[in-house]
Amino acid sequence: MPKQPDQRRELSAFLRSRRERITPGEVGLPQTGRRRTPGLRREELALLAGISATWYTYLEQGRDIRASDQVLDALASALRLDRYERGHLFQLAGHAPAAEAEEQEPLAAEVAAVPLLIQPHPAYIIGGNYDVLSYNQAADELFPQLTAAADRPANLARWVFLEPAARDVLVDWEPEARGLLARLRTLAGRHPGDPRYTRLIDELNAGSPEVRDWWPRYDVQARRGGRKRLRRPGRGTIDYAYTAFHLAEQPEQTLVIYSDEPESVG
């Protein structure tokens, strides 16, 4: 059901008020330069929530757009809303109360800020089902279209198999895709019946002939560091080393950091 203009204005004011009450220091961001307004900038909040800065700006401006339950959950977590504020957010957005919404994998705000601190090195945090829970600008540029969807969180597995740009970026697409699918199967096996995994796997099977061929083979693999060859516009092929760090409190959540080797440019 479309939101009415008054409801959109109230949602806009609520989001802005909650964004302005959070200081950069509270979420582990450096305080750089003077700020015209208190609290976080829109683009900082969008990065913490793992959504497009442009799309979040539209939402806060009161434009007539619809946010998914997952996006609202991500915003509520980034804004550190309590359960009453979270329910109010969902009601203003025209959804059922947050308690009835599908839960998203939780990520502490101070943890979500880590990729921003690692800039300019590409970095992101992924959940067990490969949802991109946090990322920095360098990662957004390295993996084009990964965070473009406005109505749901970015997902690395969805990008690799369903986004055409992935086949241009990943020089060794097939072995990279096979490895990712094997790691997804390993993690999905720990959560039988979990809709976060079953819906993603159904979507990948529906959209990718490779997944339909490879999934029944039951390949499994653990997450680890390694190397990737990635194409960069204007820079050719670059050999990246990447390191994976598992979070102590949430071991299925993984911080991945990339560093390039300039001598490998070709």
TrEMBL record:
Signal peptide: none
Pfam families (UniProt xref): HTH_31 (PF13560), MLTR_LBD (PF17765)
Matches recorded under CDD domains: HTH_XRE
Annotated HTH cro/C1-type domain residues: 14-86
Gene3D superfamilies for the chain: 3.30.450.180, lambda repressor-like DNA-binding domains
Record-linked InterPro entries: Cro/C1-type_HTH, Lambda_DNA-bd_dom_sf, MLTR_LBD
Protein name: Helix-turn-helix transcriptional regulator
Organism: Streptomyces decoyicus
Lineage: Bacteria, Bacillati, Actinomycetota, Actinomycetes, Kitasatosporales
